[in-house]
Write the structure tokens for this entry.
Amino acid sequence: GFSMGGNQSLKLIGEFGGEVPREVRGVCAISPPIDLESCSRSIMQSENRLYEARFLRSLRRTMRERDRLFPGRYDLSGLDEIRHLWDWDDWFQPVNGFRNALDYYQRASSLPLLASIRVPALIVHAQDDPFIPFEPFGDERLQGNRVIRLLAPRHGGHVAFWGSRRPDEDRAWAENRAVEFCRELSCLAKIDRH
């Protein structure tokens, strides 16, 4: 999974704990926001203002389209006054069963469940990601879990890794690491069958 999809993938595997379906051999997450509260606070910083404004424009378009499809289902009265993602989540996450933004961030983050992951996991996260602070990746729940492999290059931004290890490799660096990881899992699966 990439970005939020990576967080959701890690959270799901953590929720399974030792009861992971046998078809699931591992999980790979690239630039996952494992601590949504710290990410929301980071996005509110002035250096991320343009990204946040663009993201909110996209969310507004989506909500207007949903309102067109399901008239009256959502309260759009304050839509244009929302200036931060945190405010957005305070306004709309109750529709999804959360009390507010903080409740959503706490319950939807994968960080609390990383210690419960029992299948091989690869996390690729750049230390210079402008939206996802690196500090949570030092948490003992991640660092203490031996099945989690963290690749944390100093540079790469948010899902923007670019470079190659070998002359015959394309420049999709993170995707190439994911492919290598899947190949490793495939080899382990063959060994397990024998």
